[in-house]
Write a structure and sequence with these properties.
Order of helices and strands: HEEEEEEEEEEEHEEEEEEEEHEEE
Strand content: 35-45%
Radius of gyration: 25 Å
Mean pLDDT: 80
Structural class: mainly beta
Largest sheet: 9 strands, antiparallel
Number of strands: 22
């Protein structure tokens, strides 16, 4: 009896301590909030099995800087749209005067397959949000639900250089070749442009030279009627150079346009876009256009040695360009080295034979159209 009664106080203390610990955990837990929605695209395109869906909750209150990511969620192999998502976040992260918006995109490695345009504001009644995403390979500009139609045939993507700045929750681009000043659509590869600018700018709103593959077309505006807008098909880099100071070509972070395979010049129709590639040094990713589909993968470089890894494409069929695309994939699989002569890049196999020849048009002319 004495042994049993001696154990009772110890047990009672343990129960009391557990209750206190539970109460402390409840009172100190981080408060959370959440937002839910669905994202979709209209094209009847099956996603590759390694695709990833990503939704981001952003604070777009600052007019002189890209939106700040508050929280995000990712879904691997999301299947077919619509994609349902829930983002949980900490309200304590929100600054006074915050303006929350949602963006969504589908990625395959570093390649953007689909992306939403302007950030979708959160509804005041906490209702689920619907987000429309556009294809990075779309041939028409797609209007958002509830807005006017801006579906007009755009110009072909071209290599472009221009002064870029970010103000009033949107980017503005002044083309070096034409001097035209246009807003930048918050879609396709614009997120990479905004992120690079945010990291490299000296002061908020400072202009920087942006190099990209893009097209200017009529596009729905955040406010007012549709207007001419830059759609960034592929971001290349930003720098402190100016339009009058062309960048010297280098293996990486340079736009390269295919001109020959196995020593034979490629033949293109008058309206056919030339295949191209950019080796992105920030993450050692290769991205470009293979002739019909987007091209993406990895690469390794060691001095004069070069090898491409896990190269893949989207899965669209095209009336032209499929033969060049297949030959380009075969050529990249053979690459073992590279040489650079002025504005010409020669990719060679292990025996030193040329398997793919590229040129860059970064002297200011538009070369991505073929």
């Amino acid at each position: 009896m004495k042994r049993r009664s001696a154990l009772l106080p110890t047990t009672a203390r343990a129960v009391a301590l557990a209750a206190l610990a539970s109460l402390y955990a409840c009172t100190t837990a981080t408060p959370t909030a959440s937002v839910s929605g669905t994202a979709f695209y209209r094209e009847r395109i099956a996603l590759p099995p390694d695709a990833v869906f990503e939704a981001q909750l952003e604070d777009a209150a600052r007019a002189d800087a890209p939106a700040r990511v508050i929280a995000s969620t990712r879904i691997a192999s999301p299947g077919s749209p619509p994609f349902a998502f829930t983002i949980t976040y900490d309200p304590a992260q929100l600054a006074p005067g915050h303006r929350l918006v949602l963006r969504a995109r589908v990625l395959r490695g570093a390649e953007v397959l689909f992306a939403s345009g302007a950030g979708t504001p959160l509804p005041t009644d906490a209702a689920p949000v619907e987000i429309l995403m556009m294809s990075a390979t779309a041939t028409r500009s797609t209007a958002s639900p509830g807005t006017g139609s801006a579906a007009t045939a755009p110009e072909r993507p071209t290599l472009m250089r221009g002064q870029y700045t970010y103000l009033a929750d949107a980017g503005v681009f002044t083309d070096c070749a034409s001097g035209e000043r246009v807003p930048v659509a918050q879609a396709l590869d614009n997120a990479a442009l905004e992120a690079a600018y945010g990291e490299a700018r000296a002061t908020p709103g400072a202009p920087m030279l942006a190099t990209l593959v893009g097209r200017i077309a009529m596009h729905d505006a955040m406010e007012g009627p549709p207007r001419r807008t830059l759609l960034v098909e592929q971001f290349i880099r930003v720098s402190t150079a100016t339009c009058a100071q062309p960048d010297a070509p280098a293996l990486e972070d340079t736009y390269w346009r295919l001109v020959a395979l196995d020593g034979v010049p490629i033949g293109l129709a008058a309206d056919q876009r030339a295949p191209d590639i950019v080796l992105q040094s920030r993450d050692r990713r290769a991205a470009g256009f293979a002739g019909c589909n987007r091209l993406t993968g990895g690469y390794t470089v060691d001095g004069a040695k070069l090898a491409f890894t896990d190269m893949a494409s989207t899965m669209m069929a095209c009336p032209q360009g499929m033969d060049i695309e297949q030959s380009l994939h075969e050529a990249l699989a053979k690459v073992a080295g590279w040489t650079l002569d002025g504005r010409r890049l020669d990719l060679r196999d292990g025996a030193g034979r040329s398997v793919a020849m590229f040129e860059t048009g970064e002297s200011g002319q538009r070369a991505a159209g073929g």
